[in-house]
Design brief:
Rossmann fold, 7 strands, 242 residues, single chain, alpha/beta
């Protein structure tokens, strides 16, 4: 019997690449996002909703169970950047709440909801994968709320890995680097120059598929003895060099 995965933020960028990769590996896939008419592979169940909304979180789990019976994998991709980049000394509470509600709070409570479902059905091979960012440990003073939100994801990963280990549910984190998505399109020229200047040992942009392949390995159980781990998929950005 095929396993079922929920992918949040699954209609574009890393999320859509993950949807396609998991489906290619035999998963049933349920996708939640906010687009009205997304273009998704045939057979993917789409639920329109926001992970920041408790009713929408329950809805996506209910729809997944209705369609496929049980959920075995949760991939938390949904995330936003600040609508306006501001210096840390000018960051607003409104911007902070907007970013944290989706990137951190929504992820936390959807994970809690799905974890309890996984525990209840008790089938083997369950996994959660959280998409955080190199910003979890890299200072960007013009988008502090984003960095804080992703650092929070790192701790959520550790907490759930610890709590769910007794149920053989693995929980890991992927930290993407500079990935070619809609979120980075507005700063493309900046990152082009940095990459050309030697910022990354692997001198190219990352693609959504680079992340999706790493996610899939964690979802299939191939690394079943790995939990609470942060995996940098960033072209070597994390390497400290002299």
């Amino acid at each position: 019997m095929s396993k079922t995965a929920i992918v949040t933020g699954g209609t574009g960028g890393i999320g859509l690449a993950t949807v396609k990769e998991l489906q290619s590996r035999g998963f049933n896939v349920v996708c939640v996002d906010l687009r009205d008419d997304p273009v998704l592979p045939e057979g993917v169940v789409y639920v329109k909703g926001s992970v920041a909304d408790a009713a929408d979180r329950q809805k996506v789990l209910d729809e997944a169970v209705k369609a496929f019976g049980k959920v075995h994998v949760l991939v938390n991709v949904a995330g936003v950047a600040p609508r306006v980049r501001r210096d840390l000394l000018e960051m607003t509470e409104e911007s902070y709440d907007f970013v944290m509600d989706i990137n951190t709070k929504g992820l936390l409570f959807l994970s809690q909801l799905v974890a309890n479902h996984m525990i209840a059905h008790g089938e083997p091979g369950c996994a959660m994968v959280n998409i955080s960012s190199m910003s979890a440990y890299t200072s960007s003073i013009s988008r502090g709320e984003y960095c804080i939100s992703k650092a929070g994801v790192s701790m959520i990963t550790k907490l759930f890995a610890d709590r769910l280990a007794e149920y053989n549910i693995t929980v890991n984190e992927i930290r993407p680097g500079i990935i070619h998505t809609g979120m980075t399109e507005t700063v493309k020229a900046k990152y082009d120059a940095l990459i050309d200047g030697g910022l990354l040992p692997i001198k190219r942009w990352g693609e959504p598929e680079d992340i999706a392949k790493a996610v899939a390995v964690l979802c299939t159980g191939e690394l079943g003895y790995t939990t609470g781990q942060s995996i940098d998929v960033d072209g070597g950005f994390h390497i400290q060099r002299l």
